[in-house]
Amino acid sequence: MKYWLPHTFEERRPYLEARQRILKSTRGFFEGEGFAEVETPIVQTMPGADVHVHAFEVQGGQFLQNSPEFAMKKLLVAGCPKIYQICKVFRREIVTPRHSPEFTMLEWYRAGVGYQSMMDDCIALLRACADTYTHNGITCDPHKEWQRITVAEAFKNYAGIDLADHLQAFSAAARSIGVRTTPSDNWDDIFHAVMAEKIEPYLGQGAPTILYEYPAHMACLARKKPDDPQVAERFELYVCGIELANAFSELTDAAEQRLRFTADMEEKQRIYGERFPLDEDFLAALEHGMPESAGIALGFDRLVMLASGAEDINQVLWCG
User: Fold this and answer.
1) Residue 108 CB neighbour total at 10 angstroms
2) Exposed e or buried b per residue across 262-271, where buried means at least 16 C-beta atoms within 10 angstroms of its C-beta
3) Are 251 and 221 in contact (CB under 8 A)?
4) Confidence band of 61 (pLDDT split at 50, 70, 90)
5) Residue 166, CA distances (Å) to 30, 178, 289, 302 in order
6) Global pTM value
7) The predicted structure's pLDDT at residue 70
8) For residue 84, what is the enclosing H or E element?
9) Could you tell me which of 292, 259, 246 has the C-alpha nearest to residue 118?
10) Which helix (H) or strand (E) holds 293?
């Protein structure tokens, strides 16, 4: 159905009006907190670091960004202590009711803090944007006490699985609760399958959920927890069973970041036959010295979808 047909667009209008209100509330929140709104280039040498996220190449060695992360962190190095950005990002993935290949990202950073501050920001922001979030009959009240649960606790409570299990036991435990595995699956494959089927749908019901302390190898850009280096200071925010945001205390060690980038790009090459060039300018900025910081990326379209009660992400997009 063409979005520009007047009768079609009229069905979408209430959601777009909600989008405008939420955008205004979002900017009001950050202005009240003393943040600077920044704009960084969309075309990047390294569009992102996630092994499983794909990018659109626009010319040799240049890509449309998966996230404005690296450019914004360079601004932290430059001396900008509190920054946010609302921008277009691009991920070469299939269209679903929750994902558009071109979407709007809300990303912000604070210098001098850890990821706990991002948790506090999420609480204040979601309360400022809406009183209730809904999706597929699930209701989430941001004014209630939020659930905070570690990844290990979530696997134990929702799936009865011990994350400390080695691959064979981990696979057997997953099969015992009805999660399909194959002989070629590695530990991460099984982790994501259990998350998708047995854990994520139940998070953020009644009140938002902060799922924190991910396995360290699943947080390429995050600092490891000082008293437990097996996990990273990373969390994801869930509302109505939908992942809304990803946050962490930033890794500031340039040498370690290079090693992680290299390992992840090797893995990307092994799985998908492609890799991104490393952002040498970002690594140079880390070597110069990035302050202790925390940052977060939040899917703005999803936020609007959940706040407005839309069933499909296209309902909250002006065009598409």
Assistant:
1) 26
2) eebbeebeee
3) yes
4) confident
5) 44, 19, 38, 35
6) 0.96
7) 98
8) strand 82-90
9) 246
10) strand 293-299
Beta bridge partners of 62: 59
Angle ∠(134,137,138) on CA atoms, nearest 5: 55
CA distances for 189 relative to 122, 124, 272, angstroms:
29, 34, 14
Reading the block at residue 79, the tokens are 């001396």
Whose structure tokens read 């979005």?
A: 3
CA separation (Å) from 318 to 20, 26, 35, 89, 156?
A: 11, 18, 27, 16, 42
- Name the CA radius of gyration of the chain, rounded: 20
pLDDT at 198 over 90: yes
Nearest CA to 148 out of 200, 211, 202, 233 is that of: 211
Angle CA 301–105–19, to nearest 5 = 35
Mean local confidence (pLDDT), 267-277: 95
Helices 115-129, 6-32: axis angle to 10 degrees equals 130
Residue whose entry in the numeric block shows the structure tokens 């609302």: 86
Which DSSP category does 205 fall into?
Answer: S
- In Å, how far from its chain's centre is CA 18? 22
- Token digits for 36? 């600077």
For the record, the structure tokens of 291 come out as 């302050």
Measured N-to-C along each axis, helices 254-272 and 280-289 cross at an angle, to the nearest 10 degrees, of 160
Convert the pLDDT of each residue in 107-143 to its tens digit.
999 999 999 999 999 999 999 999 999 999 999 999 9
Q: What is the mean pLDDT of residues 184-195?
A: 95
